[in-house]
Amino acid sequence: MLRRRLTVVPQEPLLFTGELRRNLDPEGGRSDSEIWDVLRRCALQELAEGLAGGLGAHIVAGGSFSLGERQVLCLARALLRGACVLCLDEATANVDPESDARIQRLLVEELGHCTVITIAHRLRTVLGSDRILVLDMGTVAQLGHAKELLVQEGLFRSLAEAAGVLDGVDNAAQHALPRQTLHFISL
């Protein structure tokens, strides 16, 4: 049961060779209207409608979708599964800014009911989180909210200064995920 409620979205998103429908709903338990609804909510409906065969379109693993589109398709899969825990392992590390914005919107608007664990090196990815765990060489260096960590002398503040993200904290905090989220910065 736990495995069904946990979804991992890795840095290199995984799509299976086969129908788009099976990529989004591997167990085949969702109706076409539910799948189309999730695609609409993920801003992927146009993309799917443009494929020959729509939901029945044949997908080749690593095929014609951009990295960002594949990431969002994996998040759509998580929505359809009803995931309660979502682990994003560097999921936005290599995506374009438009896909990153789409992913951040999905996390807030569509996956806010989930506990989200984000493993990230980009500080902007985690600024809106409830709690941030900073790891240094596998050891806990800091734990707290971004605003707290930024006023303390420490690794997180040093990284934020170096990355030039100090101005983004207030804006990101206003868009914080509504449920318990724990984000990791691994160094």
Summarize the structure.
This protein has 187 residues and is of the alpha/beta class. 39% of the residues lie in helices and 20% in strands. It has helices at 2-5, 20-24, 32-41, 45-49, 67-81, 97-109, 146-151, 155-163, 169-174; strands at 6-9, 18-19, 58-59, 85-89, 115-120, 131-136, 139-144, 181-186.
In percent, how helical is the residue content?
25-40%
Global structural class: alpha/beta
Number of strands: 8
Q: Count of helical segments?
A: 9
Largest sheet: 6 strands, mixed
Description:
- By secondary structure, the protein is of the alpha/beta class.
- The protein contains 9 helices and 8 strands.
- It has helices at residues 2-5, 20-24, 32-41, 45-49, 67-81, 97-109, 146-151, 155-163, 169-174, and strands spanning 6-9, 18-19, 58-59, 85-89, 115-120, 131-136, 139-144, 181-186.
- Strands 1-4-5-8-6-7 form a 6-stranded mixed beta sheet.
- Strand 4, helix 6 (97-109) and strand 5 (115-120) form a beta-alpha-beta unit.
- Helix 3 (32-41) packs across helix 5 (67-81) and helix 5 (67-81) packs parallel to helix 6.
- The protein starts with a helix and ends with a strand.
- Mean pLDDT is 83; it is low at 171-180.
Topology:
Blueprint: H1 2-5, E1 6-9, E2 18-19, H2 20-24, H3 32-41, H4 45-49, E3 58-59, H5 67-81, E4 85-89, H6 97-109, E5 115-120, E6 131-136, E7 139-144, H7 146-151, H8 155-163, H9 169-174, E8 181-186
Helix pairs in contact: 3-5, 5-6
Sum up the structure in keywords.
single chain; 187 residues; alpha/beta; two-stranded antiparallel ribbon; 8 strands; 39% helix; 20% strand
